[in-house]
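Protein Entry — a single chain follows
Next Lines — sequence and tokenised fold
***
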Amino acid sequence: MLLSLENVTFGYLGVPTVENVSFSVNEGERVGLLGGNGEGKTTLLRLILGELVPDGGKVFVKSGLRVGYLAQNGGLDSDATVYEEMKRVFAEDERLLARLKEAQERLAVANEAEYPALSAQIESLNRRIAARDSYHTDVRIRTVLGGMGFEEMYDRPVSTMSGGEKTRLRLCRLLLEDPELLILDEPTNHLDVKTLFWLEDYLLSLKGALLAVSHDRYFLDRLTSRTLELERRKVTSYKGNYSKYLVLKEEHYKQQLRAYERQQEEIAKLQTYVDKNLVRATTAKSALSRVNKLERMEIAEKPLPPPAPPRFRFEYDEKPYETVIFAPRFDLFAEEKLLLENASFTLMRGEKCALVGENGTGKSTLLKFLRRESGAVQHAKFTRIAYYDQENADLDPEERVLDAFWGRYSRLPQTEARKLLAQAGLGAEDTEKKVKELSGGLRAKLSLAVLEGRRGNVLFLDEPTNHLDLPARESLEAALKAFDGTLLFVSHDRRFIEAVAGKIALIRDGKLTVFEGNYASFLEQQRTAAPREEKREEKREEKEKNGSYRSREERAKEAKLKARTKEIEARLEALEKEEAECNEELVRYAADYKKVREISERLDAVRAASEALYAEYEKLIG
């Protein structure tokens, strides 16, 4: 056993945050710690680490236990470069190798009397070096830095990095330290999908125990074999990962409720017997025995149902035309950096598309670019875009929460405004606070409530699940699945993408590629494409050797041709759908001459556009 908590109680200003909490973590265990926003998960971790002293109960930690702890936004502070900072983890290995080199040099010039002692010292050092694998520290450093996205930053000073990068570096250092117990508080923040998969694989290979606080359900399902839930100041342990926990929690509540109801039935039966028979001489003795039984009975409290999750509902007033977003050709820049060149993107009404890619590839920039009409971006008539910003930048930190919502929708009665905020998870006490006083999770819920009020028929969401607890994420998922409008979103939450998206747009190596189908099929395509890419690279190298390799200009020209061909195919498919829609409307409005004329004009324009595209298409493929 590595650590144990026995009846631990702790609170602030006399108000308990955790109460009579007991659990343990054993060697090699993988444990997930769950709880809603503000339930006290970080407080519990600080009690384990000894940063806080419990008001009651005891925390036992194995003597000499090597613990690694990643706090939320706990960045690494250092004046060293990235590589130098990681090298410091292996200071003892460097010392052992230096001692071995020195001993070997002395052995080379030793006399007969010195030889046995030096030989024994070298043998001892070699055993210690082999046990620590000291010769491969450089490989380990490069493996971790590469997997965590720092392969091109070895010489960059840590002090010049962003907060998210510093947090990732702290995690890199912890992985290299290989502690007996690794405690991670929201480790998947700041990580893109590629890095998340790498981190999970790496953690699965570690021998030590893991205690992780996370809202990433995919992460929890892959890594944990036991789940601790902190709810209403108590901790309950469930055997299994997150998906198993959901099933067991529901069963646990039903069992408690059945036990309570059975006891209440028994109490009622006993009390009825006592009331009828206590005054009768012939049955008074048996009635008294039931009174004694009632007095000895430990009365169970009625189990409380799980806290109600927030509720979201996205509605709109009118539908846009079928091709909601049409950007046939554009370049995308972030300041002066070119992110995408000669890209194209189309979003049809009712589609739900996820933008994915590594950090820094331009997902959020693309979302903002497509949000506004321009010479390169066309929006369909009646399109109403509602935008969710991951930084919640449109909220005034000094504004009262109620005013931040009601001020935008002042036509609502105040009671209705408070009701909508409550449904989003903001209680009466929260609505009177300033926005800056809310936790990250509550600010996100406020922004989602504001988003609902905008009644957009097209939703653009930038990392909407950041800061949300698990019940809120699942409620948002359900609301977006029920939404029959159009959705374009950026997210690193793989389970969220899997549940909502029916189309994936990938940004990689300066290219935007669209995959039809859900996230699971996209991942499968990526897995099968990887070996093909390796073979293509081998063929390319072979052609270069033989002098038959095409120039960069030739390859660029071919790529441009393919892109235009694919773009025309997509546009023709959209026009065919629009033509079919026009024909249906002609039948529907046959008695309305004015309407028929409008539809006919639209139909002529669609057919003319189709003919022009077919002519271009034949030239391209001819």
Notes: The first strand starts at residue 3 and ends at 12. The radius of gyration is 32 Å. The longest helix spans residues 552-588.
